[in-house]
Amino acid sequence: MKIHTPLMKLGLASAIAIAAFGMTGCGGDSSSSKNKSESMSADSSAGIGAIVECVSSCTRSGFELPADAIYVSPDEVDGADLKNALITALTDIPDNAVIVLPKGSFTVSSSITVTDATGVTITGHGMTETKLDFSSAPEDDGFKFAGGTDITIRDLGVYEAPKNAIKADGVNGIHITYTAAVWETDLEEGGSNNGAYGLYPVSSQNVLMDYNYSVGSADAGIYVGQSNNIVVRNNVAEHNVAGIEIENSNSADVYNNIAFDNAAGILSFDLPGLPQAYGGGVRIFSNNTYDNNTTNVGAGAVSLAPSGTGILIFATSDVEIYNNKISDNDTAGIEIASYFLADDNVENYAANYGATMANGWSPLIKNINIHDNTFKDNSLASPPKEGLLQGIIAGFQSAGNATGSEQTAPAVIYGAIGELLSNAGKLAGFNQIVGADAKADGVNYDVYSAADLICLQDNINENNKNTLGSNDLNVGLVYGTDASEPSNWNADLTAPTPTLRIDLMENNTLLDCTHDRLAPAVVTIKGKVYGCTADDAKLAACKL
After folding, report:
1. Same domain, 307 and 237
2. Of 407, 410, 439, 520, whose CB has the highest number of CB atoms within 10 Å?
3. Strands 64-65 and 57-58
4. Each residue of 262-313: pLDDT tens digit?
5. Is 350 in the same domain as 222?
6. pTM of the entire predicted model
């Protein structure tokens, strides 16, 4: 039985301090979850906000409360229900107001909705100083922000929300910082009933997520979906199904985060049927994603993420992955898969997905640039962990792979069936479905060009020979990509056949190519610009 350390034993300020101040180079050491938890449980007198001096009153993170701040029930006792006070305070909020929630641990017996606010900051006194328990609320979100501009949520903790902890829908300028989303039931011991998303901006613009903590989400702990202009930095995502997820979103930088003890650490998806059909321009860099081996208890699309995954790229394009520390993930360090992994019935795609394909959603993956990452002790599960990749991993570990001898399972796995089908002209009919706007953006099902390839260069092997029995760090190609090669097809050359190619990453004959670098994401909130070209311009990670 897995023993999960409850939040209060971890020391939340210490956890966030690791993300804020401990990420250098590739993102810290690769110690196990147990050791990391032990380091986080130590009292941190230099925790978030402790080194900040304030003129008057500050939150734990150092945010100075202005003289004209509006205080909500400042003298309320622990255990009180803040429902009525919050509804009153957060209805018709004056523009640019700072709303201060009280210190202590409180219940909130209702979802709290904020509609079309402008320039508002809602703050507690710290993510462990202001705790809001929504367990007695109806089946809904904790906080819900509907529309609005330049909203900040900070310095509070949302516990046990029945649905999602904090959802922001249709906001232009949303900053969630020094905020915790917490479900304390262990995922593998009934946590499938936990809320779905922790911190959850969707259909929004100018999204900044930094110095947050999420634990126990039955879907994604820190999620941004169908949004544009996104920075996700300096967060800790622990023991969720998906740690950090970018879905159907454009221009996103995900850096200096820690993702551990999730089923899958960091994900970039495009899924069919969503209001924003497809995304791209996602950079995942200088993160530490390790020990993501929790059983996947999620429902819906997230259930497809194989347990034991460091980084997963699924049915999306234009992603750059670099300078990450990727270690101790039992299935693979990085997995790249088309939507055909979930649904391989190509003949029915027009009927099942035609409308969303017309808007530009594609099952393919293109232009993935993987470079300068450090890998250590991934792909060690034997037998393989259950899930979509179980049979594939078993094949690589047996003599059934292309080498004819047992191999260490690949640290990087590329499915490649979509590329093979495109190169064979078997998806050419899909071009008739693609709408004019999507075609103008380059969505097509033609033979893969050099710009479409999945590329792997200059990655670092830190495997321990004593752990693996060898120092092999492998890359695997499930299907070959050469449509003219008979071995990639069945006997009558009508259906693709997996060949399970495998090679040392140092040789890298399978994914040997390079791409141009992607542009940094830029976020503007309240007239201030954030990201690698702005407030983090001097950050070492941003210069790589």
Report:
1. yes
2. 410
3. antiparallel
4. 999 999 999 999 999 999 999 999 999 999 999 999 998 899 999 999 999 9
5. yes
6. 0.93
